[in-house]
Design goal:
By secondary structure, the protein is mostly helical. Helix content is about 75%, strand content about 5%. The chain has 11 helices and 2 strands. The longest helix has 27 residues. It is globular and about 55 Å long.
Length: about 240
């Protein structure tokens, strides 16, 4: 059944949000703070590990870097496009709309929790590759693995940040569902080089999410999302 992987992923995130919030209500603030910092460190290292795997190559007994110009160019151009489109503001506006429509108007942390969790579970090659495999081959294995990973991440986030985290299921459903729907058209474009660039940049953006979790919103990560598209196009050059 095409789309099953995304359905399971969405359910996993929503369930993690509910369970995390219920657990968070029974956890003292100091423990919530520790959970938040632990999540931030985990996200930082997830991003760092993915980045290093793409950036470093081992040849002739030593490490060397690759793709640095692609990374710098994609982030710079993508960032300018994102600022022009005001993606972060639109993400926040959508979060505000969700907050009101779901009866969470008094939750002051809803938008930050929603945006942070959404960026954490949406960015990355697993969402793209898994959705394409789901749509074309009916292979749900990648998205099932992602569902487990997302469940753990959102569970811990929701325990410390609140119910907004669970609503990250909405953008995940939209993104992965759209990719699955158009998977036949996208597959020829998703070469190994393209996916490597997406994974490379996605890992850097996940690292940036970890920075925001640990030190506050220092980086407008959503405005850097077009860098993923620029990185994919960069292969042509």
């Amino acid at each position: 059944m095409p789309g099953l992987g995304t359905i399971v992923n969405v359910i996993a995130i929503a369930a993690a949000g509910v369970i995390g919030c219920l657990a968070g209500e029974r956890i003292a603030p100091r423990f919530q703070d520790t959970l938040m910092k632990a999540t931030a460190i985990a996200v930082l290292f997830l991003g760092l590990g993915g980045t290093m795997a793409q950036m470093l190559t081992f040849k002739h007994g030593s490490f060397s870097t690759q793709g640095t110009m692609m990374l710098i160019g994609s982030l710079a151009i993508g960032g300018l496009i994102g600022e022009w489109l005001r993606i972060e503001d639109r993400f926040a506006d959508f979060g505000e709309w969700l907050k009101k429509k779901t009866g969470n108007a008094n939750d002051q942390e809803f938008i930050e929790a929603f945006v942070t969790a959404s960026l954490t579970v949406c960015i990355g090659a697993m969402a793209i590759v898994g959705s394409i495999e789901d749509g074309i081959l009916g292979d749900h294995s990648i998205l099932f693995a992602k569902a487990i990973l997302d469940f753990v991440i959102v569970l811990v986030m929701a325990a410390s940040m609140g119910r907004g985290c669970g609503f990250a299921a909405v953008p995940v459903g939209i993104l992965q569902g759209t990719v699955t729907l158009f998977s036949e058209l996208l597959k020829p474009l998703m070469t190994t080089a393209v996916m490597n660039n997406i994974s490379y940049i996605g890992s850097v953006l996940i690292f940036c999410v970890g920075i925001n979790l640990l030190w506050g919103n220092k980086i407008r990560v959503a405005n850097l999302l077009p860098a993923l598209v620029i990185g994919a196009i960069w292969v042509v050059f």
